[in-house]
Design a protein that fits this description.
Elements lengths: L1 E3 L2 H6 L14 E3 L8 H15 L7 E4 L11 H8 L6 E5 L2 E10 H13 L4 H8 L2 E4 L15 H14 L1
Parallel strand pairs: 1-2, 4-6
Antiparallel strand pairs: 3-5, 4-5
Length: 166
């Protein structure tokens, strides 16, 4: 599932499932208008998950940004082996945390939605209220697997890194 505040525009441009990787991926517009930032994508993912399963209370939602090409394929396995899963788990690499890169118990996400509306939709107060735990991936990776492209310079850095991996 791909949640994006520009999903409606992408769908109009013909960017559909057939143009995406061969996984079960769909584009879902943010459930909030106006958009509310990263929490909007996480909540939209939770709403999508609710529509896909009957036993949603025992489900978990893995979230990752679309601009992070090195997101670890073993994210869930690493996190599951490191601690019991009861609270949201948020990625950390050294001293940097990545709140959008996380594993969320669905039952906590609906509580987070209510809290988010009271906290101005800032993600860190929601993480604190939910008792989110951080998991440091620096132990397993030499380079930051959560590096993303918010600016042109970062995009160029990621492109160079991808060329080195190829």
């Amino acid at each position: 599932m791909l949640s994006n505040r520009n999903a409606t525009k992408l769908l109009r441009l013909g960017f559909q499932r057939k143009t995406l990787p061969p996984h079960e991926v769909g584009i879902v517009p943010d459930a909030f208008s106006p958009t509310i930032g990263p929490l909007g994508g996480i909540y939209t993912g939770a709403l999508w998950a609710k529509s896909c399963t009957k036993n949603v209370c025992d489900s978990w939602l893995l979230t990752a940004p679309v601009d992070g090409p090195f997101f670890p394929r073993d994210f869930v396995e690493r996190v599951k082996s490191g601690q019991p899963l009861t609270q949201p788990i948020i990625a950390r690499f050294g001293g940097d945390i990545y709140p959008v890169c996380g594993l969320w118990p669905y039952r906590k996400l609906m509580i987070a939605e209510l809290h988010g509306r009271q906290s101005g939709n800032a993600i860190r107060p929601v993480l604190s209220a939910l008792g989110a735990q951080e998991f440091d991936f620096a132990t397993f990776y030499q380079q930051n697997p959560f590096a993303n492209a918010n600016h042109v310079v970062e995009l160029l850095q990621l492109q160079a890194r991808m060329k080195l991996k190829a």
